[in-house]
Predict the structure.
Amino acid sequence: MYRTRPYVSPVLFPNSTTLPPSLSSISPITSAAHPLINSLTCATLHPSDPSCLRTYITYWIRVFPSLTKFFTAIFVLLSIPKYRSFYNAPIHTLNQLASRILRYSAFVSGSIGTSWAAICFFQQFLPKGTLATQRFFLGGFAGGLWAWIVKSDARGEFMYSARASIDSMWKVGRKRGWWRGVRGGDVGLFVASLMVVNVIYERDARAISSGAVRKGLSSLRGEGFRDHVLEEDKRIDLERKGL
Amino acid sequence: MSPSPSPERRVSAKSTADPILRNALRYTISAKEYETLHKYIISRSKVLKRNAPTVARVERIIDAKVPTGEHYNDYNASAVRASARVFIASAAALKIWGIVGKRFLGKDSGRGAKLPLWKRSNFRLSLSLSSILLLHRILYRFFTRLRAYLLADEARPFRRRNAKISRTLTSSLAPAIGASLAGFMLAVYPAEQLRITIAIYTLSRAAEFAYNHAEEEGWIWGKKERPWWWGSWLIYPFSCGQLLHAFVFDRDCFPTPFGTFILKNSPQYTHKRPVDYPSNLSWPTPLDVAEKLGDIAKLHYPYVFLIFLGIKS
């Protein structure tokens, strides 16, 4: 059994085969691994460096600056329409922009890097058979905790990840036979969700927190492509000023 | 249209009597829109101005057979106009997107043979969107009016006879719920990934708005304060965990762009083929490595490298 057979380091004994046949495709990486590395996952993830912590730190040093550049480009482009606030409060706005760029970069590099590093971490501190596959979920969860630093302005990103996750979860369940798809089930889901949105719009239009969606709903009802909540706010504002 | 010495009189004599022209005009443009169009575009060019009908004339054609002093304002005509515009705009956008994808992003449009129009997914997407809009407007109006009729005094006998049905139909939410049935027109679009994406998107928005509403009404926290750590960020660890698990064990169920982005930003953990590596040997791609990590986990982490130190695991 592979599970009990001790590993024969290929660096020391180049002619012996060490990997089970199902893993042979990664042997180009693992066969050159540092002899001090004592686990196969580490030999796969960081073959040249025996230290998991140093790998993690080096990862941050390499990724954080490149992501900072990436987010600088994105957020500067996105802030062009708000050029007025640069004029009115330049220091404050620049400060906000910089903090946003740094927080997003830390968020993304943190969540990717921590997920990788968690594989090493669990390998070191958990017995081999414990949560053998579930630990990947835990690793992703740990990486996801970096969301804390952008919690005030990344709701859209969180919802996006939730959608991606629901989509993926649905397919995994179907593949593994946890549930079966109903023909046209997606259309049914769409209608049900549309009903919920419509009912909320009817009862409490302010709960529809997106102006674009409010406009769309108003147009779907033939009331014009208008944001009635925003118009009401403006009217109230004007009345208050008039008084 | 050819200019004539007295176009106004000729129109009133002939065109207003022509129901085809009148309806064609009504269903393409409203009098108000034509006025705007005239003001900003037609009146700027001499040729256009000479040949296009005046605002008053269009108004007269559209408002024909409407009591004087009122404007023709048909809800259905406006719904058809909006729906036709959604159809044309979405079809054009999809066409441009297809061209951009083919020319600049190198995407293959697939399917070499030309499909008939009603089988093309772009056509069916535009058709589906525009018919959702049209049907939603019509149904909303229908249920609103039905509710008004049922609430009128004359309908009292009906209400007494069919208490349950009339209670449902006279609910203030009946138009909102009834109109949502228009969503079934999404089925016009062939069952593809995009349809699932649209459904999940709507679901997530519905959940978000429902949460907003519930929080506003105090259904969640009651009289207590919302805990300081609570927020949408809590979603992220769970979805991230699920996604990482799927990435390793079920990559066929994982969104590809997500994976590309992650692997692009994973130096130190993924390893490119060395420059001097023999070209006849294979080198695992990062995706292979991720899959193999899953296999290692399934084998319960088989290897311990300690033989170097003389320790057997």
